[in-house]
Amino acid sequence: MIKLLFLGLGHLSRGDVTIAADAARRLPRSTYTIAFLATADVVPQLRDLGIPAIALDGRSTAANLDIVDGVVASFRPTMLVAADAFTLNYSVGWSGLNVRILRERYGLPLASFDQYDWRAADYVVDFYGHHLKRFPPLLESCDLLIRNCPLNRPAVGGSGGSGGVVHVALAGGGPHDGGLDPPDRRTNGSGRVRRPTVFLANSRWEYVDVNKRSGASGMAQLIDAMPRVLHSHLAALRRPLTVVHVGPVPWRFPIAEQIEYRHLPTLPPTSFYEQLVGADLYVTTNAASVTLSHAVLAGVPSLLLQNDRTLYLGPDGRDRAGHGWLVDAAPGLTAAYPFRVCPWGWYGFLTPVLRDNPYTDCFVTANVFDRDEVLRTQHGLLDDASIRTVLHSRQMDFRDRLGRMPPAGDVLEVEVANR
């Protein structure tokens, strides 16, 4: 029996734990016994999925280490699996754990999920505003890397693993109708206009300015501006809409009268998924979003908004005149820089993992600061049956491609046996 102890210790996002749980719960129980050590807030989510989970909730690092010591001694794992090695290292101030301490304290093989193919990016991250940071090569200290697909390219054919790297497919939920038909403008012959539903989701990290210590103000401006920009694009459709927004911070500005705005601070996983697959359109500003992956696998029409250029929008800015709508919507935004992940940037960092990746054909990408492009794309995804049908076909083809990947249990079993 292979025993895997997963570590999900991020406070700002549940994405890495969601990915790890997706893989863990599909491992055959005839071969694997699994357990999670996680922050207290995600333990209910894991237990709802039928995964044994223990909260790392001691009042000190020493108390948390005692908890881990006890779990390792009683569970006796074959391998430790970090949902994300970098998040693990970041947690050391409260958990007492990082990659080095885990290896030295327990002497067990260590695996980590590698969501972004860090090696391809040479461990260099470009944060918003062209701030480059080289990260320590933590994954080189791991015995095994687990690359989830998506975001990584699917590995179809062969064993699914080589050289200490395995690829595992995300499952998500089942597909829905994929919006093959555009939202009805009228219902039951009543003449009432039906409101298409647009789904938005945010995490706490999307309100964290990681450039703050450097004194740069650009990221703070983007954090404030992006909800206003999204609202402006949706309002410009000039049609009734329902916007379901799940996230820690509601919109705090006047909302267009044709938009019915519903804010939910958080939802249980099942309810969250129901809202996602029930939407006519999912909109995100995060290319690495696990919710985007789940939307694609469920056949939900999806729009990724990113920025590939630098704009100067201040009073004397060269780009101000051509972006009057943007100046009106977000007057505090004096400059905008490239990003694939709002607000942190990551435009160059994610380029290698997204290059020649069939996943990117499963949603539509538009420049968030190009009003005409965004409006054209929104109209197409909401109203054009041919666009929705082609996109849905690509999504289901991609889902089938993931289904042809070797089962996660098989590829992991081979790699664990080699440690």
Explain what the structure shows:
Pfam families: DUF6365 (PF19892). Residues 173-192 are annotated as: Disordered. Residues 178-187 have a biased composition (Basic and acidic residues). InterPro entries: DUF6365. By secondary structure, the protein is α/β, with parallel strands linked by helices. It has 2 domains: 2-121 and 135-170 and 404-417, Glycogen Phosphorylase B (Rossmann fold, 3-Layer(aba) Sandwich); 197-402, Rossmann fold (3-Layer(aba) Sandwich). The chain is built from 14 helices and 18 strands. The strands form 4 sheets. Strands 3-2-1-4-5-8-10-9 form an 8-stranded mixed β-sheet, sandwiched between helices. Strand 14 (281-284), helix 9 and strand 15 form a beta-alpha-beta unit. The longest helix has 19 residues, at 385-403. It is globular, with a radius of gyration of 22 Å. Mean pLDDT is 91; it is low at 177-192.
How do the helices and strands line up, and which of them pair or pack?
Blueprint: E1 2-8, H1 15-24, E2 32-38, H2 43-48, E3 53-55, H3 61-75, E4 79-82, H4 85-90, H5 92-95, H6 99-106, E5 110-113, E6 124-127, E7 131-134, E8 144-149, E9 161-162, E10 165-169, E11 197-201, H7 218-235, E12 241-246, E13 259-264, H8 269-277, E14 281-284, H9 290-298, E15 302-306, E16 311-312, H10 324-329, E17 335-336, H11 351-354, E18 364-367, H12 371-383, H13 385-403, H14 408-417
Parallel strand pairs: 1-2, 1-4, 2-3, 4-5, 5-8, 8-10, 11-12, 11-14, 12-13, 14-15, 15-18
Antiparallel strand pairs: 6-7, 9-10, 16-17
InterPro entries: DUF6365
Biased composition (Basic and acidic residues): 178-187
Region (Disordered): 173-192
